[in-house]
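User: Design a sequence. Structure:
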C-alpha cells in the first residue's frame, strides 16, 4: 500500500473484520510497532523482536485478555485487544500507519464493543494523538481524566 488517501470514503463495518490472532499475524504486528512515527504517536516503546514475541505470547496466554487481528478487505491492518488491569477492563488498538485515516480503527472498535459486554471499558490516548482520541469519542467513550505516565501526558477515556 502507498500513502493514506484521506479523501477515500471510510469503510463500512462490513469492510473491516476481527478474527483471532494467528501466528502469521505477529511479524506483521512487529512491523507495525517498529514504525518510528507510529510508535511516537502512540507513545509506546518499540520492542526488539524477541521481546515483542514474548509479549504477544503473554497476551495470547492470558485468559483475561481478548486479542483480535483487524483486517480490511482480507488484509491485516492492525490489532485490537481487551484486557483486565488493576480490576479495570481496558481496550487498546494499533493500526498500520499506511492505513491511518480510513476509519479502520473506529470500525474495529465498534466491532469489539459488540463482542465485549464488560462495562465500563477504559482506554488511553497520548495527548497529541488526536486521531485515536476521535476514534474513542466516535465510539461513545468520554474523556474522564488525564495522567502523566512514563514521561508523557495521556488522556483517559471511559465507556459506561
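Assistant: Done.
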Amino acid at each position: 500500500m502507498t500513502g493514506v488517501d484521506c479523501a477515500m470514503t471510510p469503510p463500512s463495518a462490513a469492510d473491516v473484520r476481527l478474527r483471532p490472532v494467528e501466528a502469521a499475524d505477529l511479524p506483521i504486528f512487529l512491523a507495525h510497532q517498529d514504525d518510528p512515527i507510529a510508535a511516537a504517536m502512540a507513545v509506546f516503546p518499540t520492542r526488539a523482536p524477541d521481546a515483542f514475541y514474548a509479549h504477544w505470547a503473554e497476551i495470547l496466554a492470558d485468559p483475561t485478555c481478548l486479542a483480535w487481528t483487524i483486517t480490511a478487505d482480507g488484509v491485516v491492518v492492525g490489532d485490537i485487544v481487551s484486557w483486565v488491569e488493576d480490576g479495570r477492563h481496558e481496550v487498546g488498538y494499533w493500526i498500520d500507519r499506511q492505513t491511518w485515516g480510513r476509519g479502520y480503527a473506529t470500525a474495529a472498535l465498534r466491532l469489539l464493543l459488540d463482542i465485549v459486554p464488560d462495562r465500563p471499558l477504559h482506554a488511553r490516548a497520548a495527548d497529541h494523538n488526536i486521531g485515536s482520541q476521535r476514534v474513542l469519542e466516535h465510539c461513545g467513550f468520554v474523556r474522564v481524566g488525564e495522567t502523566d505516565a512514563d514521561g508523557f501526558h495521556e488522556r483517559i477515556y471511559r465507556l459506561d
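Helices lie at 26-33, 36-42, 49-61, 104-115, 130-138. The radius of gyration is 15 Å.
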